[in-house]
Design a protein that fits this description.
Structural class: alpha/beta
Number of helices: 15
Protein name: F-box domain-containing protein
Largest sheet: 10 strands, parallel
Strand content: 15-25%
Strand order of the largest sheet: 8-9-10-11-12-13-15-17-18-23
Number of strands: 23
Organism: Candolleomyces eurysporus
Length: 530
């Protein structure tokens, strides 16, 4: 029977045994535990916990391991000395088949059976001394291994421990062994555990960075998956993996970020025969290269997010999407990740192929600059009467923007609209006035009530024409603040007593009333702005 010695662990096909059995007529020598103990003590090294990594200690342990294999009588006393002192839990972890190495880091994945725990305990019960220190730099054990062990164990890991030694270590060394990609290993173990326990995941979302190809491969185990979103995992995504994802039978919602991906171009079929929703974060030219190789005939939602594109790419992208999925498309989004020095212009004619799609319920355009008029809004509203979401980009004052009249247009043409983001030119609206400083306004004295009412009425009349020009603004002037340097601006109020002024106005600044715009209107927009 073949035997191996791995860091003091005796491995055979049938568990820990020896390769020579002492006969029933063994000498007193083999049956005397004191003699055997003295021999093992002679071979064992010094138990100085700060010198457990020395060459002398390694030689002594190797001798004890060989001695345990010579005869059954030596097995127990030799292993007792061999495992008596440890300065890392790594030798114990190696006993468990679920303790494996992936991408240079040791992780704990899979089911640990009762038989595995019995074998673990057969060695762990021999540990009497433990030096609590940092593992060497060449030994990378994921932190979640310790957490997982604590979760799975119902009894102490080292039940016979008598001496615990903690040298001078920093807080960073607390059970951590030069950890790299903690989140990756923890995520991988989490996915593996869910799959091993039979979980039928419907949705997986990972946002961040650092997942390895090995962890992404674990996603393939969940064949019932319907929705997958990966953001920041571009370096780990490979073409073969993408094709395997495309073969998943129930996947219909996919969002992938190809930023820094090693996939440069796609020139072969990817699958995704039942895909309904697709979001791709990549240069628009790359996104266009993917479209011909998608097998789905009924894409309903498409979102393209890019940091670099061109007018030609945008035009071709819209045309290709409409030509391929115009009959099924329900939502279209084109997003440009702009920066201060990277603002792209887009022409409204680029969107022309989308106009005939009457079934469109969602449209989003973001990160682009262009001129937008009330007539453009009327065209969009007439083309897409079933819109529930319309999100248009912010436009600076240097661009043409629709007026408030566009709100009335959308209200009439798109009665189902729920979410709206619309840049507006509000220059023709009366200015707004902040609430007065110093608390609520008090009622005027009885003798001034009539005069004050006349002033309010007159100013309300003067503002009626401006309020009528604002289509979505209700024509009610809540309070008239046409005060300038303590005097009313309306002719009818010229004989009215001046409003009361605080006895000691601040000497260092101009009176507050001098900075007030002439009207204060209450706006009640008919839509929800996001």
């Amino acid at each position: 029977m073949l035997h191996q010695v791995q860091a003091g662990i005796i491995t055979t096909a049938q568990g820990p045994t020896t390769n020579h059995n002492c006969s029933p007529t063994a000498s007193r020598f083999h049956s005397n535990p004191d003699i055997l103990g003295e021999i093992c003590e002679y071979l064992s090294s010094n138990d100085d916990l700060e010198e457990l990594d020395s060459a002398q200690v390694a030689e002594g342990r190797q001798n004890l391991a060989w001695l345990a294999l010579t005869c059954k009588a030596f097995l127990e006393p030799a292993l007792d000395r061999l495992w008596r002192s440890l300065n890392t839990l790594y030798p114990l972890f190696k006993i468990l088949p679920a303790f494996i190495q992936t991408d240079g880091t040791h992780v704990l994945r899979g089911t640990i059976t009762p038989e595995d725990w019995d074998r673990f305990d057969w060695y762990a019960r021999r540990v009497k001394k433990f030096c609590y220190t940092r593992d060497p730099d060449n030994l990378d054990i994921a932190m979640h291994v310790y957490f997982r062990m604590a979760q799975l164990r119902t009894s102490p890991i080292l039940p016979s421990l008598r001496h615990l030694y903690c040298p001078e270590i920093s807080q960073q060394d607390f059970l951590i062994s030069g950890i790299t990609s903690v989140e990756d290993k923890l995520s991988g173990t989490f996915l593996h555990t869910l799959w091993n326990d039979g979980a039928q995941l419907d949705t997986i979302i990972f946002k961040g960075s650092g997942l390895s190809p090995g962890t992404l491969d674990l996603i393939l185990n969940f064949q019932s998956l319907r929705s997958l979103e990966l953001t920041g995992m571009g370096p780990a995504m490979e073409l073969d993996w993408l094709k395997k994802i495309g073969a998943m039978p129930k996947l219909d919602d996919l969002a992938l970020d190809f930023t820094h991906s090693r996939i440069e171009v796609v020139e072969e079929d990817l699958g995704f025969k039942d895909l309904k929703s697709l979001m791709v974060t990549a240069p628009l030219s790359f996104t266009r290269s993917i479209l011909p190789y998608l097998a789905t005939p009924s894409l309903e939602t498409i979102v393209s997010v890019s940091c670099s594109d061109s007018q030609n790419d945008r035009t071709k992208f819209v045309e290709e999407v409409v030509e391929r999925w115009g009959s099924t498309l329900r939502s279209f989004s084109l997003v440009h990740l702009m920066s201060a020095d990277n603002i792209e212009d887009i022409q409204m004619v680029t969107l022309a192929p989308l106009i005939p799609i009457k079934s469109l319920t969602g449209f989003r355009l973001e990160g682009y600059s262009f001129d937008l008029t009330d007539d453009n809004i009327r065209i969009l509203g007439s083309a897409w009467p079933n819109l529930t979401k319309l999100l248009l980009p912010f436009l600076g004052s240097e661009r043409v923007r629709p007026s408030v009249e566009s709100l009335r247009i959308l209200k009439e043409l798109c009665p189902k609209l729920v979410h709206l983001r619309l840049p507006l030119d509000t220059s023709e609206l009366p200015a707004f006035v902040p609430p007065p400083i110093g608390g609520p306004r008090t009622a005027p004295p009885p003798e001034e009530a009539g005069t004050g009412a006349a002033s309010s009425s007159s100013s309300s009349s003067s503002s009626s024409s401006s309020a009528a020009a604002a289509a979505a603004v209700e024509e009610d002037t809540d309070a008239v603040m046409a005060e300038d340097s303590g005097q009313s601006s309306s002719p009818s109020s010229s004989t009215s007593p001046a409003p009361s002024v605080p006895p000691n106005p601040p000497p260092t600044s101009a009176p507050f009333n001098q900075h007030r715009p002439p009207f204060h209107l209450r706006i009640r927009p008919p839509f929800v702005f996001l």
